[in-house]
Design goal:
Layout: E1 2-8, H1 14-24, E2 30-35, H2 37-44, H3 46-49, E3 61-69, H4 72-84, E4 95-101, E5 104-106, E6 111-113
Antiparallel strand pairs: 1-3, 1-4, 2-3, 5-6
Helix pairs in contact: 1-4
Length: 115
């Protein structure tokens, strides 16, 4: 089992990410809306204002998506679905994906213990 974390930098891809999740069988994911700290620093702190030119206002926001996947292959399928849709996450700064091994999960559906 793995804990999947996606930091989505370009929010216009949110629906594509959710559709790819569905296509790959990634269920019960959650998403959280927040602020992209790099963009906030660039735009609001005068020290950085002259050095880095601010971009569009919507880049201030980011989305964090989390979920549980049973195997790495499911994430590879997810990346393949995005690639087939023309979303090249390894060539463009669209998102950051992190996959962490899980040692214990307990909820109403899953009971996983790696011991």
């Amino acid at each position: 089992m793995y804990f999947l974390i996606i930091q989505l930098f370009k929010n216009e891809y949110k629906d594509d990410i959710f559709l790819a999740f569905t296509s790959c069988g990634i269920k019960k994911a959650s998403f959280f809306e927040g602020f992209n700290l790099d963009k906030i620093l660039q735009e609001e702190f005068s020290l950085f204002r002259g050095i880095i030119k601010p971009k569009e206002q919507r880049e201030r926001y980011s989305i964090l998506i989390t979920g549980i996947v049973d195997k790495k292959e499911r994430v590879r399928d997810f990346i393949k679905v995005l690639d087939e849709a023309g979303i090249e996450i390894e060539k463009e700064e669209i998102l950051r994906l992190v996959l962490l091994p899980v040692s214990l999960i307990i909820d109403s559906e899953l009971h996983f213990d790696d011991e």
